[in-house]
Amino acid sequence: MYSEAAPQPRPAPAPRARRVLRTAAVLGAVALALAGGPAGAVPDGSAGDRTPAPAWRDCGTKDGMPAQCAELPVPVDHARPDGPRIRLRLERIPAARPSARREPPILLIPGGPGLGIAYLREIGPLMKLQRWRENRDVVLFDPRGVGGSAAMRCDRPAPDRPSTITSQAALDATAAANRAFAESCLRRTGETAKHLSADDTAQDIEVLRKAIGQRDGLVAYAGSYGTVYAAAYLDRYRRHPPRALVLDGLVDHSVDLPEFAARNAAGVENAFTRFTRWCAENSACALHGRDAGAVFDRLAAAPSLPAPGAGRRITGDDVRKAAARHMSGGRLEDYGWPRLARSLRAAADGDASDFAHPLGGDKDAGAEGLTRAVLCSDFPMPSRYRTLSEHTDRLRRTAPRFGTTVFWDITGDCAGHPSPVTDPPRVPRVSPRSGILLANNLHDPATPITNALAVLRRLPATTRVLLADADGHGAAYTSPCANATFLRYLNDPSGQPPYTVCSAES
Which strand (E) or helix (H) includes residue 273? Predict the structure, then answer.
């Protein structure tokens, strides 16, 4: 672990917490077995240390909450503060009590990569944003390249992700298609497309922190890929550590893309096993009374499925990819297991139309280009099939249903990407004065507990830990106990105990 001072021994957890930590370790072992100014540029100028407050304006009411909007200029390249700039789109949800606005706001750092204000608003009810704004303003933003923040543009459709790649020739063909797509994005977007790494966004976050008045340090929630942005922030600004930072659903940015993908694949496999068990035990599952695993296997093996309302051909690969995505919803009715069970039952009964519409919708070319540009700036991708096949050989044994599909769905995006890896994997150097609450669901498919355990070993002994016995991706959305704990911590970090366990019942 790298830090400014040698870490002190971590206090021993309570007996119950020790049991849960042991459980987490076991689950982790199982999971491992997974040039001109660009569009939106503003006139040249130096950001320097002068960061004026955003000029907030009313922009209506959303989900029963008032919204205020603003733009924040930042350099395209922070190493050239006098060069071209872009505007980040911000949105503020004012505190319910005007007297509470004296406190610094809470910043929400979105994940994806490629998510922003629209997504945070969509999941606002799940995250209980009405409660989060009781005592403080809540600030949302579109990271660079997303939405209203100089969005990525591409002039050709993204190539389909491969379901599997079984040879060097197939990998080379995928790389050539990816390269042509990425080059079209670079032509349309300009210089911004070369500055989309987590470290670039981390520098934007520091400008944003100053602009919104967090004078005593960053106060923020970072979820999923947002934890990569946060890790880059912790490393770059360790002389000015955060006051209170929640890291929820950890992405480990010390590994390469194949290992990242393999962990994800193993996590999805583990989650699907839990889904089939839930269906066997719970009458709320639309497949209760049937063998959910057998139903899925039959559909996933089909070259074509009847889908009268789909408007296109549905294949077993569509079913497999959709099922993998639904694992991140856990037991949430409209996003996770219940919805998947209904779709599988309908497909088994002769109508697979549900699988024509992916969870979260289809990305346009620019959004897809942004996701790939960020991921491929942060994680290296080997160009030799032989190197990658070591992972797929293992995953065929340990994650037979989803291993290779999920693995290539992730790694296939970065094969042949022309941009260099500008923010390569590393162990972040973190100040022991950093206020951090590290949190993870025990059964998170997208960011399995193995990631959190690996990251925890490198953080200061002062780091607080929360483990939630919950299914799905992100404790803030799937565990009411974790959500309430995050809010208490952001309002009063000094009151947070070293270890917190959120049981399934809570």
Answer: helix 257-281
Q: Which of 328, 323, 318, 325 is nearest to 355 (CA)?
A: 318
- Number of residues written out for the chain: 506
What global pTM score does this model have?
0.88
With a pLDDT cut of 90, the percent of the chain lying above it is: 76
DSSP secondary structure code for residue 161 in this structure? P
Q: Which residues of 194-210 are buried (b: 16+ CB within 10 A; e: fewer)?
A: bbbbbbbbbbbbbbbbb
Of 414 and 504, the structure prediction assigns the larger pLDDT to: 414
pLDDT at 39 over 60: no
For the record, the structure tokens of 194 come out as 């070369």
Q: Convert 330-357 to b/e letters by CB count within 10 Å (16 or more is b).
A: bbbeebbbbbbbebbbbbbeebbbbbee
Q: Write out pLDDT tens, residues 144-170.
A: 999 999 999 998 888 887 788 999 999
Packing angle of the helix pair 365-378, 198-211 (nearest 10 deg)? 100
Residue 314 DSSP label: B
d(CA 411, CA 442) in angstroms, rounded, equals 25
d(CA 274, CA 113) in angstroms, rounded, equals 27
Q: Which of 432, 437, 430 is nearest to 487 (CA)?
A: 437
Residue at token pair 């790389």 = 175
Q: How far apart are CA 206 and CA 218, in angstroms?
A: 8
Are the beta carbons of 2 and 429 closer than 8 angstroms?
Answer: yes
Single-letter amino acid, residue 253: H
* Cβ-contact 273, 256 below 8 angstroms: no
Of 15-24, 94-103, 186-195, 474-483, the range with the lowest mean pLDDT is 15-24
Q: Write out the two tokens for 77.
A: 């390249």
Stated as kind and residue range, the H or E segment containing 430 is strand 429-430
| Cis upstream peptide for 113 (omega within 30°) | yes
The answer to whether residues 341 and 292 touch, using CB atoms and an 8 Å cutoff, is: yes
Closest listed residue to residue 264, CA positions, set 451, 455, 396: 451
- The per-residue pLDDT for range 262-276, each reduced to its tens digit, is 999 999 999 999 999
- Confidence tier at 63 by pLDDT (50, 70, 90): confident
Residues 213 and 243: their CA atoms lie apart, in Å, by: 13
Q: Are 100 and 136 in contact (CB under 8 A)?
A: yes
Indicate the residue type of 256. D
C-alpha span between 490 and 102 (Å, rounded): 15
Instruction: Please answer whether residues 206 and 72 qualify as being in contact, where contact means their C-beta atoms are separated by less than 8 angstroms.
Output: no
Confidence (pLDDT) at 61: 85
β-strands 85-93, 65-75: how paired?
Answer: antiparallel
* Amino acid in the structure at residue 255: V
Looking from the CA of 94 toward its CB, the CA atoms found within 13 Å total 15
3-state secondary structure 94-158: CCCCHHHHHCCCEEEECCCCCCCHHHHHHCHHHHCHHHHCCCCCEEEECCCCCCCCCCCCCCCCC
